[in-house]
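Bumping with the actual sequence this time:
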Amino acid sequence: MKIAGRFVSEPGFSSLQTAATDGRSLGATVYIYAAVLAPIFVAILITGQLGEFVRLGGIESRWTLWHEAPEWFWTSAILLGRLLSVLLGVVCLYLLYRLGVKLRDRWTGRAAAVGLAVTFGFVESARLINEDIPMLVLLLLTILLCLRYVESGEELTFFAACFTAGLAVAFKLTGGSAVVTIGVAYLLRARRTETARAALARPKLLLGGLAVGVVTITVGFPSVLFGGPGELLTRITHTSGQKTTLPGGVAAGIEFWLLRGYLSAFGLPLVVGVLTGVALTVRQSLSDAEGFDDRLLLVATPVVVTLAVFAQWRYVRVHHLLPTLPPLLLLSALGASHLNRDSRGVRVALVVLLVTSATFSAVGTVQMATDPRDEGTDWLRTNTEPGDTVEVYENSIADVSAVHGRPLQHYSYRENNATYNSSLVLDERAYTAWMVGMPERQPEYIQLTGGELQYVTPGHPDREQYPRRAAYVQALLRGEYNYTVVAQFGKRGSDRSLTERILWAGVQPEPESRESTVIILARNDTVEESHQT
Protein backbone atom coordinates (compact mmCIF):
# COMPACT_ATOMS: atom_id res chain seq x y z
CA MET A 1 0.00 0.00 0.00
CA LYS A 2 2.87 2.34 0.78
CA ILE A 3 4.43 1.86 -2.66
CA ALA A 4 1.12 2.08 -4.54
CA GLY A 5 -0.11 5.07 -2.56
CA ARG A 6 3.02 7.15 -3.01
CA PHE A 7 3.30 6.34 -6.71
CA VAL A 8 -0.33 7.22 -7.46
CA SER A 9 -0.13 10.46 -5.48
CA GLU A 10 3.23 11.41 -7.02
CA PRO A 11 4.01 9.36 -10.17
CA GLY A 12 7.70 8.96 -10.88
CA PHE A 13 10.82 6.94 -10.14
CA SER A 14 11.72 8.99 -7.06
CA SER A 15 8.46 8.15 -5.30
CA LEU A 16 8.95 4.44 -6.00
CA GLN A 17 12.53 4.62 -4.76
CA THR A 18 11.54 6.40 -1.57
CA ALA A 19 8.71 3.98 -0.82
CA ALA A 20 10.82 0.88 -1.52
CA THR A 21 13.85 1.96 0.51
CA ASP A 22 12.22 3.76 3.44
CA GLY A 23 12.32 1.12 6.14
CA ARG A 24 13.14 -2.56 6.21
CA SER A 25 14.42 -4.07 2.96
CA LEU A 26 11.44 -5.32 0.98
CA GLY A 27 11.68 -8.81 -0.52
CA ALA A 28 9.62 -10.64 -3.13
CA THR A 29 6.75 -10.98 -0.65
CA VAL A 30 5.75 -7.52 -1.89
CA TYR A 31 4.67 -9.16 -5.14
CA ILE A 32 2.56 -11.68 -3.24
CA TYR A 33 0.86 -8.85 -1.39
CA ALA A 34 0.34 -7.05 -4.70
CA ALA A 35 -1.34 -10.14 -6.15
CA VAL A 36 -3.59 -10.37 -3.08
CA LEU A 37 -4.52 -6.69 -3.12
CA ALA A 38 -4.96 -6.39 -6.89
CA PRO A 39 -8.61 -7.58 -7.02
CA ILE A 40 -9.41 -5.42 -3.99
CA PHE A 41 -7.98 -2.33 -5.66
CA VAL A 42 -9.95 -3.13 -8.81
CA ALA A 43 -13.10 -3.09 -6.68
CA ILE A 44 -11.96 0.18 -5.09
CA LEU A 45 -11.40 1.71 -8.52
CA ILE A 46 -14.82 0.60 -9.77
CA THR A 47 -16.59 1.99 -6.69
CA GLY A 48 -14.81 5.34 -6.96
CA GLN A 49 -12.89 5.12 -3.65
CA LEU A 50 -9.40 5.43 -5.14
CA GLY A 51 -8.76 8.88 -3.68
CA GLU A 52 -9.38 7.66 -0.14
CA PHE A 53 -6.95 4.76 -0.51
CA VAL A 54 -4.29 6.92 -2.11
CA ARG A 55 -4.37 8.96 1.09
CA LEU A 56 -3.88 5.78 3.12
CA GLY A 57 -0.75 4.95 1.12
CA GLY A 58 0.96 7.99 2.64
CA ILE A 59 0.40 6.86 6.23
CA GLU A 60 3.67 5.62 7.72
CA SER A 61 2.38 4.22 11.01
CA ARG A 62 0.92 0.73 10.90
CA TRP A 63 -1.04 1.60 14.02
CA THR A 64 -2.75 4.48 12.25
CA LEU A 65 -3.18 2.57 8.99
CA TRP A 66 -4.99 -0.28 10.74
CA HIS A 67 -7.68 2.06 12.02
CA GLU A 68 -7.90 4.36 9.00
CA ALA A 69 -8.45 1.61 6.41
CA PRO A 70 -12.00 0.21 6.49
CA GLU A 71 -12.54 -3.11 8.22
CA TRP A 72 -13.83 -4.76 5.04
CA PHE A 73 -10.47 -4.04 3.39
CA TRP A 74 -8.52 -5.98 6.01
CA THR A 75 -11.03 -8.85 6.05
CA SER A 76 -10.88 -9.19 2.26
CA ALA A 77 -7.09 -9.00 2.20
CA ILE A 78 -6.72 -11.69 4.87
CA LEU A 79 -9.19 -14.04 3.17
CA LEU A 80 -7.57 -13.66 -0.25
CA GLY A 81 -4.08 -13.92 1.24
CA ARG A 82 -4.86 -17.12 3.08
CA LEU A 83 -6.49 -18.58 -0.01
CA LEU A 84 -3.35 -17.87 -2.03
CA SER A 85 -1.13 -19.29 0.71
CA VAL A 86 -3.18 -22.50 0.88
CA LEU A 87 -3.02 -22.86 -2.91
CA LEU A 88 0.76 -22.49 -2.77
CA GLY A 89 0.79 -25.11 -0.01
CA VAL A 90 -1.03 -27.50 -2.35
CA VAL A 91 1.63 -26.77 -4.98
CA CYS A 92 4.27 -27.78 -2.41
CA LEU A 93 2.52 -31.11 -1.91
CA TYR A 94 2.36 -31.71 -5.65
CA LEU A 95 6.02 -30.85 -6.21
CA LEU A 96 7.05 -33.17 -3.38
CA TYR A 97 4.94 -35.91 -4.95
CA ARG A 98 6.67 -35.35 -8.30
CA LEU A 99 10.07 -35.54 -6.63
CA GLY A 100 9.15 -38.88 -5.06
CA VAL A 101 7.96 -40.24 -8.40
CA LYS A 102 11.13 -38.99 -10.08
CA LEU A 103 13.41 -40.64 -7.54
CA ARG A 104 11.50 -43.90 -6.98
CA ASP A 105 7.79 -44.45 -7.66
CA ARG A 106 4.29 -43.12 -7.03
CA TRP A 107 4.05 -44.72 -3.60
CA THR A 108 7.12 -42.79 -2.48
CA GLY A 109 5.70 -39.55 -3.82
CA ARG A 110 2.35 -40.09 -2.15
CA ALA A 111 3.95 -41.06 1.17
CA ALA A 112 6.13 -37.93 1.22
CA ALA A 113 3.25 -35.64 0.21
CA VAL A 114 0.84 -37.11 2.76
CA GLY A 115 3.52 -36.83 5.43
CA LEU A 116 3.97 -33.14 4.65
CA ALA A 117 0.20 -32.59 4.62
CA VAL A 118 -0.07 -33.81 8.24
CA THR A 119 3.08 -31.98 9.41
CA PHE A 120 1.96 -29.23 11.76
CA GLY A 121 4.92 -26.96 11.01
CA PHE A 122 3.89 -26.94 7.36
CA VAL A 123 0.16 -26.57 8.08
CA GLU A 124 0.78 -23.54 10.29
CA SER A 125 2.98 -21.88 7.67
CA ALA A 126 0.38 -22.51 4.96
CA ARG A 127 -2.16 -20.61 7.06
CA LEU A 128 0.00 -17.49 7.26
CA ILE A 129 0.44 -14.81 4.60
CA ASN A 130 4.20 -14.39 4.40
CA GLU A 131 7.31 -15.47 2.54
CA ASP A 132 7.73 -19.01 3.91
CA ILE A 133 5.44 -21.04 1.64
CA PRO A 134 6.36 -19.18 -1.60
CA MET A 135 10.03 -19.77 -0.78
CA LEU A 136 9.34 -23.47 -0.17
CA VAL A 137 7.55 -23.81 -3.53
CA LEU A 138 10.58 -22.36 -5.29
CA LEU A 139 13.03 -24.51 -3.33
CA LEU A 140 11.18 -27.72 -4.26
CA LEU A 141 10.89 -26.58 -7.87
CA THR A 142 14.64 -25.89 -7.92
CA ILE A 143 15.38 -29.42 -6.67
CA LEU A 144 13.10 -30.89 -9.34
CA LEU A 145 14.77 -28.83 -12.06
CA CYS A 146 18.20 -29.85 -10.77
CA LEU A 147 17.20 -33.51 -11.01
CA ARG A 148 16.17 -32.99 -14.61
CA TYR A 149 19.38 -31.13 -15.40
CA VAL A 150 21.54 -33.90 -13.95
CA GLU A 151 19.73 -36.42 -16.14
CA SER A 152 19.47 -34.37 -19.35
CA GLY A 153 22.20 -31.73 -19.21
CA GLU A 154 19.91 -29.19 -20.89
CA GLU A 155 21.12 -25.61 -20.47
CA LEU A 156 17.59 -24.22 -20.42
CA THR A 157 16.76 -26.42 -17.43
CA PHE A 158 19.87 -25.17 -15.64
CA PHE A 159 18.93 -21.53 -16.26
CA ALA A 160 15.38 -22.22 -15.08
CA ALA A 161 16.80 -23.63 -11.84
CA CYS A 162 18.94 -20.50 -11.42
CA PHE A 163 15.81 -18.39 -11.84
CA THR A 164 13.76 -20.29 -9.25
CA ALA A 165 16.69 -20.35 -6.82
CA GLY A 166 17.20 -16.60 -7.16
CA LEU A 167 13.52 -16.03 -6.56
CA ALA A 168 13.64 -18.29 -3.49
CA VAL A 169 16.41 -16.10 -2.06
CA ALA A 170 14.38 -12.99 -2.89
CA PHE A 171 11.51 -14.34 -0.83
CA LYS A 172 13.62 -15.47 2.12
CA LEU A 173 17.35 -15.69 2.70
CA THR A 174 17.07 -19.26 4.00
CA GLY A 175 16.11 -20.14 0.44
CA GLY A 176 19.81 -19.76 -0.31
CA SER A 177 20.20 -23.53 0.06
CA ALA A 178 18.62 -23.73 -3.41
CA VAL A 179 21.70 -21.97 -4.82
CA VAL A 180 24.01 -24.57 -3.28
CA THR A 181 21.77 -27.31 -4.67
CA ILE A 182 22.37 -25.94 -8.16
CA GLY A 183 26.11 -26.11 -7.56
CA VAL A 184 25.80 -29.76 -6.51
CA ALA A 185 23.71 -30.49 -9.61
CA TYR A 186 26.38 -28.90 -11.82
CA LEU A 187 29.06 -31.13 -10.32
CA LEU A 188 26.92 -34.26 -10.57
CA ARG A 189 26.19 -33.60 -14.23
CA ALA A 190 29.89 -33.12 -14.95
CA ARG A 191 30.63 -36.39 -13.13
CA ARG A 192 28.22 -38.28 -15.39
CA THR A 193 29.90 -37.21 -18.63
CA GLU A 194 32.84 -39.00 -20.19
CA THR A 195 34.94 -35.85 -20.17
CA ALA A 196 34.28 -34.66 -16.64
CA ARG A 197 37.10 -32.11 -16.64
CA ALA A 198 35.82 -30.44 -19.80
CA ALA A 199 32.26 -30.54 -18.47
CA LEU A 200 33.33 -28.62 -15.37
CA ALA A 201 34.83 -25.81 -17.43
CA ARG A 202 31.68 -24.35 -18.99
CA PRO A 203 32.02 -20.59 -18.53
CA LYS A 204 29.02 -19.80 -20.74
CA LEU A 205 26.73 -21.94 -18.62
CA LEU A 206 28.16 -20.71 -15.31
CA LEU A 207 28.17 -17.02 -16.21
CA GLY A 208 24.72 -17.31 -17.76
CA GLY A 209 23.33 -18.98 -14.66
CA LEU A 210 25.01 -16.41 -12.42
CA ALA A 211 23.52 -13.58 -14.47
CA VAL A 212 20.04 -15.10 -14.28
CA GLY A 213 20.33 -15.51 -10.52
CA VAL A 214 21.67 -12.01 -9.88
CA VAL A 215 19.03 -10.34 -12.04
CA THR A 216 16.27 -12.38 -10.40
CA ILE A 217 17.42 -11.49 -6.89
CA THR A 218 17.76 -7.82 -7.84
CA VAL A 219 14.28 -7.61 -9.32
CA GLY A 220 12.89 -9.82 -6.54
CA PHE A 221 14.04 -7.35 -3.88
CA PRO A 222 12.26 -4.04 -4.63
CA SER A 223 14.58 -2.35 -2.13
CA VAL A 224 17.62 -3.60 -4.06
CA LEU A 225 16.05 -2.76 -7.42
CA PHE A 226 15.46 0.87 -6.42
CA GLY A 227 18.09 1.33 -3.73
CA GLY A 228 21.09 -0.65 -4.93
CA PRO A 229 22.96 -3.73 -3.62
CA GLY A 230 23.65 -2.06 -0.28
CA GLU A 231 20.04 -2.73 0.70
CA LEU A 232 20.57 -6.48 0.28
CA LEU A 233 23.83 -6.35 2.23
CA THR A 234 22.03 -4.56 5.06
CA ARG A 235 19.33 -7.22 5.09
CA ILE A 236 21.87 -10.07 5.18
CA THR A 237 24.11 -8.58 7.86
CA HIS A 238 21.19 -7.58 10.06
CA THR A 239 19.53 -11.01 9.85
CA SER A 240 22.72 -12.97 10.49
CA GLY A 241 23.82 -10.61 13.25
CA GLN A 242 20.48 -10.79 15.02
CA LYS A 243 20.27 -14.59 14.96
CA THR A 244 23.86 -15.07 16.11
CA THR A 245 23.72 -12.61 19.00
CA LEU A 246 20.18 -12.42 20.37
CA PRO A 247 18.92 -15.17 22.69
CA GLY A 248 15.68 -16.88 21.78
CA GLY A 249 13.98 -16.66 25.14
CA VAL A 250 15.63 -19.61 26.87
CA ALA A 251 19.27 -19.89 27.92
CA ALA A 252 20.06 -23.00 25.87
CA GLY A 253 22.35 -24.12 23.07
CA ILE A 254 21.35 -24.37 19.43
CA GLU A 255 20.92 -28.14 19.79
CA PHE A 256 18.01 -27.49 22.15
CA TRP A 257 16.32 -25.18 19.65
CA LEU A 258 16.81 -27.57 16.76
CA LEU A 259 15.42 -30.55 18.66
CA ARG A 260 12.53 -28.55 20.04
CA GLY A 261 11.85 -27.09 16.61
CA TYR A 262 11.61 -30.45 14.87
CA LEU A 263 9.47 -31.91 17.65
CA SER A 264 7.15 -28.91 17.40
CA ALA A 265 6.99 -29.20 13.62
CA PHE A 266 6.53 -32.96 13.28
CA GLY A 267 5.31 -34.17 16.65
CA LEU A 268 7.08 -37.01 18.47
CA PRO A 269 5.65 -39.93 16.41
CA LEU A 270 6.58 -38.39 13.07
CA VAL A 271 10.05 -37.42 14.31
CA VAL A 272 10.65 -41.09 15.14
CA GLY A 273 9.24 -42.09 11.76
CA VAL A 274 11.40 -39.60 9.86
CA LEU A 275 14.58 -40.62 11.67
CA THR A 276 13.84 -44.28 11.01
CA GLY A 277 13.07 -43.66 7.35
CA VAL A 278 16.19 -41.55 6.78
CA ALA A 279 18.32 -44.22 8.48
CA LEU A 280 16.83 -46.86 6.16
CA THR A 281 17.58 -44.68 3.14
CA VAL A 282 21.21 -44.22 4.18
CA ARG A 283 21.66 -47.94 4.83
CA GLN A 284 20.05 -48.92 1.54
CA SER A 285 22.09 -46.36 -0.42
CA LEU A 286 25.38 -47.56 1.01
CA SER A 287 24.60 -51.24 0.42
CA ASP A 288 22.92 -50.93 -2.98
CA ALA A 289 24.53 -53.34 -5.43
CA GLU A 290 23.90 -50.92 -8.30
CA GLY A 291 25.88 -48.21 -6.55
CA PHE A 292 25.02 -45.04 -4.70
CA ASP A 293 22.25 -42.94 -6.24
CA ASP A 294 23.93 -39.54 -6.32
CA ARG A 295 20.59 -37.83 -6.97
CA LEU A 296 19.89 -38.19 -3.26
CA LEU A 297 22.54 -35.52 -2.69
CA LEU A 298 20.23 -32.98 -4.33
CA VAL A 299 17.56 -33.79 -1.75
CA ALA A 300 19.97 -33.83 1.18
CA THR A 301 21.77 -30.58 0.26
CA PRO A 302 19.06 -28.16 1.50
CA VAL A 303 18.99 -30.00 4.83
CA VAL A 304 22.76 -30.03 5.28
CA VAL A 305 23.24 -26.40 4.20
CA THR A 306 20.39 -25.09 6.33
CA LEU A 307 21.54 -26.92 9.45
CA ALA A 308 25.14 -25.80 8.87
CA VAL A 309 23.95 -22.18 8.85
CA PHE A 310 21.74 -22.67 11.89
CA ALA A 311 24.65 -24.16 13.82
CA GLN A 312 26.02 -20.59 14.01
CA TRP A 313 22.78 -19.14 15.37
CA ARG A 314 21.69 -18.69 18.97
CA TYR A 315 18.16 -19.95 18.34
CA VAL A 316 15.74 -21.06 15.61
CA ARG A 317 11.98 -21.21 15.28
CA VAL A 318 9.87 -23.78 13.46
CA HIS A 319 9.44 -21.56 10.40
CA HIS A 320 13.22 -21.39 10.04
CA LEU A 321 13.28 -25.18 9.71
CA LEU A 322 10.59 -25.22 7.01
CA PRO A 323 13.05 -25.67 4.07
CA THR A 324 14.27 -28.93 5.62
CA LEU A 325 10.88 -30.54 6.31
CA PRO A 326 9.94 -31.73 2.77
CA PRO A 327 13.44 -33.09 1.96
CA LEU A 328 13.51 -35.02 5.24
CA LEU A 329 10.07 -36.47 4.57
CA LEU A 330 11.13 -37.43 1.05
CA LEU A 331 14.27 -39.17 2.30
CA SER A 332 12.14 -40.92 4.90
CA ALA A 333 9.62 -42.06 2.28
CA LEU A 334 12.45 -43.42 0.15
CA GLY A 335 13.57 -45.53 3.09
CA ALA A 336 10.05 -46.73 3.82
CA SER A 337 9.60 -47.74 0.18
CA HIS A 338 12.13 -50.53 0.73
CA LEU A 339 9.99 -52.11 3.42
CA ASN A 340 7.61 -54.96 2.72
CA ARG A 341 4.45 -52.95 2.20
CA ASP A 342 2.37 -56.13 2.12
CA SER A 343 3.39 -56.86 5.70
CA ARG A 344 0.57 -56.29 8.16
CA GLY A 345 2.98 -54.88 10.74
CA VAL A 346 4.33 -52.29 8.30
CA ARG A 347 0.84 -51.22 7.26
CA VAL A 348 -0.28 -50.88 10.88
CA ALA A 349 2.82 -48.84 11.74
CA LEU A 350 2.24 -46.48 8.82
CA VAL A 351 -1.44 -46.03 9.71
CA VAL A 352 -0.59 -45.30 13.36
CA LEU A 353 2.05 -42.80 12.25
CA LEU A 354 -0.41 -41.08 9.94
CA VAL A 355 -3.24 -40.92 12.49
CA THR A 356 -1.08 -39.65 15.37
CA SER A 357 0.55 -37.01 13.17
CA ALA A 358 -2.80 -35.87 11.80
CA THR A 359 -4.15 -35.63 15.35
CA PHE A 360 -1.14 -33.57 16.47
CA SER A 361 -1.63 -31.24 13.52
CA ALA A 362 -5.39 -30.97 14.09
CA VAL A 363 -4.93 -30.00 17.74
CA GLY A 364 -2.46 -27.30 16.72
CA THR A 365 -4.84 -26.01 14.06
CA VAL A 366 -7.64 -25.69 16.62
CA GLN A 367 -5.29 -23.71 18.86
CA MET A 368 -4.50 -21.32 16.01
CA ALA A 369 -8.22 -20.68 15.62
CA THR A 370 -8.52 -19.63 19.29
CA ASP A 371 -5.91 -16.90 19.65
CA PRO A 372 -5.92 -14.96 22.96
CA ARG A 373 -5.58 -11.76 20.92
CA ASP A 374 -8.99 -12.39 19.37
CA GLU A 375 -10.50 -13.11 22.77
CA GLY A 376 -8.93 -9.94 24.15
CA THR A 377 -10.31 -7.93 21.25
CA ASP A 378 -13.82 -9.25 21.90
CA TRP A 379 -13.50 -8.36 25.60
CA LEU A 380 -12.32 -4.82 24.85
CA ARG A 381 -15.11 -4.30 22.32
CA THR A 382 -17.73 -5.38 24.86
CA ASN A 383 -16.39 -3.95 28.12
CA THR A 384 -14.71 -0.66 27.20
CA GLU A 385 -15.97 2.61 25.79
CA PRO A 386 -14.63 4.17 22.56
CA GLY A 387 -13.07 7.03 24.54
CA ASP A 388 -11.22 4.81 27.03
CA THR A 389 -7.44 4.74 26.82
CA VAL A 390 -5.92 1.26 26.46
CA GLU A 391 -2.13 1.25 26.83
CA VAL A 392 0.03 -1.46 25.24
CA TYR A 393 3.77 -2.14 25.24
CA GLU A 394 4.26 -4.10 22.03
CA ASN A 395 5.76 -2.33 19.03
CA SER A 396 3.40 -3.78 16.40
CA ILE A 397 -0.38 -3.66 16.29
CA ALA A 398 -0.33 -7.24 14.99
CA ASP A 399 0.91 -8.42 18.41
CA VAL A 400 -1.92 -7.03 20.54
CA SER A 401 -5.68 -7.12 20.94
CA ALA A 402 -7.05 -4.16 19.02
CA VAL A 403 -10.61 -3.07 18.30
CA HIS A 404 -10.83 -1.56 14.82
CA GLY A 405 -11.52 2.15 15.03
CA ARG A 406 -10.33 2.53 18.62
CA PRO A 407 -6.68 3.68 18.69
CA LEU A 408 -4.40 2.27 21.37
CA GLN A 409 -1.87 4.21 23.42
CA HIS A 410 1.64 2.97 22.60
CA TYR A 411 5.23 4.12 22.47
CA SER A 412 5.59 6.52 19.55
CA TYR A 413 8.54 5.98 17.25
CA ARG A 414 9.42 6.32 13.57
CA GLU A 415 8.37 2.92 12.31
CA ASN A 416 10.02 3.04 8.89
CA ASN A 417 13.52 2.55 10.32
CA ALA A 418 12.62 0.68 13.48
CA THR A 419 13.96 -2.62 12.19
CA TYR A 420 17.58 -1.63 11.76
CA ASN A 421 18.85 1.69 13.02
CA SER A 422 16.26 3.56 15.04
CA SER A 423 16.72 4.50 18.67
CA LEU A 424 14.13 1.85 19.49
CA VAL A 425 16.63 -0.78 18.40
CA LEU A 426 19.99 0.82 19.13
CA ASP A 427 19.11 2.47 22.44
CA GLU A 428 16.05 1.17 24.25
CA ARG A 429 16.37 3.39 27.32
CA ALA A 430 13.81 5.87 25.99
CA TYR A 431 11.29 3.07 25.53
CA THR A 432 11.95 1.75 29.03
CA ALA A 433 11.52 5.24 30.50
CA TRP A 434 8.21 5.63 28.70
CA MET A 435 7.01 2.24 29.87
CA VAL A 436 7.76 2.73 33.56
CA GLY A 437 6.38 6.29 33.35
CA MET A 438 2.84 4.93 33.12
CA PRO A 439 1.69 6.54 36.42
CA GLU A 440 1.99 9.95 34.75
CA ARG A 441 -0.45 8.90 32.00
CA GLN A 442 -2.95 6.92 34.11
CA PRO A 443 -4.69 5.05 31.26
CA GLU A 444 -8.04 3.42 32.01
CA TYR A 445 -6.74 0.04 30.84
CA ILE A 446 -3.38 -1.66 30.34
CA GLN A 447 -2.85 -4.68 28.12
CA LEU A 448 0.02 -7.11 28.68
CA THR A 449 0.99 -9.89 26.28
CA GLY A 450 3.49 -12.74 26.37
CA GLY A 451 6.23 -10.29 25.42
CA GLU A 452 5.81 -8.31 28.64
CA LEU A 453 5.40 -11.43 30.76
CA GLN A 454 8.86 -12.54 29.63
CA TYR A 455 10.25 -9.84 31.91
CA VAL A 456 8.87 -11.71 34.94
CA THR A 457 9.54 -15.26 33.71
CA PRO A 458 12.31 -16.98 35.73
CA GLY A 459 15.30 -17.83 33.56
CA HIS A 460 14.22 -15.69 30.60
CA PRO A 461 17.07 -13.50 29.26
CA ASP A 462 14.79 -10.44 29.13
CA ARG A 463 14.37 -10.64 32.91
CA GLU A 464 18.07 -10.01 33.40
CA GLN A 465 18.51 -7.63 30.47
CA TYR A 466 15.68 -5.26 31.43
CA PRO A 467 15.46 -5.12 35.24
CA ARG A 468 13.44 -1.86 35.28
CA ARG A 469 10.80 -3.33 33.00
CA ALA A 470 10.72 -6.52 35.06
CA ALA A 471 10.21 -4.56 38.28
CA TYR A 472 7.46 -2.49 36.67
CA VAL A 473 5.50 -5.49 35.33
CA GLN A 474 5.85 -7.35 38.64
CA ALA A 475 4.56 -4.35 40.59
CA LEU A 476 1.75 -3.82 38.09
CA LEU A 477 0.53 -7.41 38.43
CA ARG A 478 0.75 -7.20 42.22
CA GLY A 479 -1.59 -4.22 42.22
CA GLU A 480 0.97 -1.66 43.39
CA TYR A 481 0.00 0.83 40.67
CA ASN A 482 -3.71 0.90 41.50
CA TYR A 483 -4.62 -1.51 38.68
CA THR A 484 -6.48 -4.82 38.84
CA VAL A 485 -6.46 -7.76 36.44
CA VAL A 486 -9.96 -7.91 34.96
CA ALA A 487 -9.42 -10.41 32.14
CA GLN A 488 -6.87 -13.03 31.17
CA PHE A 489 -6.75 -15.15 28.02
CA GLY A 490 -4.32 -17.95 27.27
CA LYS A 491 -1.78 -19.36 29.70
CA ARG A 492 1.04 -17.70 31.60
CA GLY A 493 4.57 -18.85 30.85
CA SER A 494 5.77 -21.96 32.61
CA ASP A 495 8.99 -22.68 34.47
CA ARG A 496 9.58 -26.09 32.87
CA SER A 497 13.11 -27.41 32.60
CA LEU A 498 14.76 -27.73 29.20
CA THR A 499 14.08 -31.47 29.16
CA GLU A 500 10.42 -30.92 29.99
CA ARG A 501 10.13 -28.29 27.27
CA ILE A 502 11.54 -30.69 24.69
CA LEU A 503 9.28 -33.58 25.71
CA TRP A 504 6.23 -31.32 25.85
CA ALA A 505 6.95 -29.93 22.37
CA GLY A 506 6.57 -33.39 20.85
CA VAL A 507 3.15 -34.14 22.35
CA GLN A 508 1.49 -30.72 22.64
CA PRO A 509 1.61 -28.42 19.59
CA GLU A 510 2.33 -24.77 20.33
CA PRO A 511 1.64 -22.54 17.30
CA GLU A 512 4.32 -19.88 16.91
CA SER A 513 1.86 -17.49 15.28
CA ARG A 514 -0.46 -17.66 18.30
CA GLU A 515 -0.02 -15.21 21.17
CA SER A 516 0.46 -17.15 24.39
CA THR A 517 -1.22 -14.73 26.80
CA VAL A 518 -3.23 -11.52 26.90
CA ILE A 519 -3.86 -9.88 30.28
CA ILE A 520 -6.04 -6.78 30.65
CA LEU A 521 -5.78 -4.61 33.74
CA ALA A 522 -8.19 -1.82 34.64
CA ARG A 523 -7.56 1.21 36.82
CA ASN A 524 -9.32 0.62 40.13
CA ASP A 525 -11.64 3.59 39.83
CA THR A 526 -12.61 2.35 36.35
CA VAL A 527 -13.53 -1.02 37.84
CA GLU A 528 -15.62 0.66 40.54
CA GLU A 529 -17.47 2.77 37.97
CA SER A 530 -18.27 -0.29 35.87
CA HIS A 531 -19.66 -2.06 38.95
CA GLN A 532 -21.86 0.93 39.77
CA THR A 533 -23.31 1.00 36.27
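The C-alpha coordinates above came from a reply further down the thread. Residues 71-103 form the longest helix (33 residues).
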